[in-house]
Amino acid sequence: MFVKNQCLGFVSFLIFWEICHLLLNTHTVPSPLETLAYMLTVPGKLALHCGASMLRVLAAIGISLIIGVPAGMLLGVNETCKKLLSPFLYFIYPMPKIAFLPVFMLLFGLGNTSKIILMIWIIIFQMILSVRDGVEQILPVHFKVMNSFCATSGQRYRYLIFPAILPQIFSGLRISIGITLASLFFAENYAATYGIGYYILSAWTKMNYVEMFGGILAIGFLGIILFDLLDSLERFSAPWLKKNAAER
């Protein structure tokens, strides 16, 4: 079903693209067939740039999970931490995090570090709030059952809290992926030699619009790959979620 939906989405996008190409009748919007044919001539070059972007995104997501999930669980179970830190989170969360890119470049240089830290800065607050909300949705009776079995703190986290917040973790990641790819495009326009954002801007400055649209299409494929990986991880780590959805 997932593959079928992705194919239908891709075909409908190509149809929409072809209609725009015909209506606008300008060389700045090449046809999708011309773009796809060009992409097939430079698969190694595109793969190199997509690989660089993918590594940056995966590094940012991994670090954000390591920090954000425990922090969110702590906020969900500890009222003192929640009262102290929630005002800061509510203030910083709506801010456009991309505005911090110049700050990170000044502090951490122009290389990969500043770009990855920017993406972490974007993802981590979404992750913390999603996990905190997931913990707060756990019914008190479930904690009473764990206490009746004399469960330790570690057992409560392992067998109750963590499985219960998995839906919020995956939902937060899905939201974060789209925002992260958009911010990555912006970040890779500065002091980068590899990355899909650099590839698109370089093609634009050369007025090679076929190459530019090839890069845009590559971002779409990158997003599909990330969502597919996320769905596979969800099916592996939380199979009961898909089962419950099918039963409904």
From TrEMBL:
GO biological process, one term: transmembrane transport
GO cellular component terms listed in the entry, alphabetical order: plasma membrane
Database matches in PROSITE patterns: ABC_TM1
Chain ranges passing through the membrane: 7-26, 46-76, 88-110, 116-135, 156-175, 181-201, 213-230
Pfam families given in the database record: BPD_transp_1
Main location: membrane
Compartments, as annotated in UniProt: Cell membrane
Assigned protein family: Belongs to the binding-protein-dependent transport system permease family.
Name recorded for this polypeptide: NitT/TauT family transport system permease protein
Originating species: Kineothrix alysoides
